[in-house]
Amino acid sequence: MSKYETVFIARQDLAPAQVEQLAEKLGKIVTDNGGKVHKTEHWGLKTLAYRINKNRKGHYVLFELDTPAKALHELERQIRLSEDILRHMTIKIEEFSTERKEQPKTDNKEAA
What we know:
Layout: E1 2-11, H1 16-32, E2 36-52, E3 55-67, H2 69-81, E4 85-93
Antiparallel strand pairs: 1-3, 1-4, 2-3
Helix pairs in contact: 1-2
């Protein structure tokens, strides 16, 4: 099986609990198709670089997957069908990282 990282951005109007449920649902798709979710990281609500479908912010979630191609294709199909996910990206990796991933930087204009 190959190793992949998938990051998706969920709509800003979802509650954090709803984003966690969405991540669990997507992780279950992978495990049901013979894959394994190595790690899930919730990066929280971040400001987007530009508007996507009238959203200025989004909930970022990272998956590290050890999965066959069939399970990855089904995961991406379900992501494309979901109206709650604005964008996603999957890349193939050689090895899983041992530390936490670098989160996207945000400008904290709201805090100032």
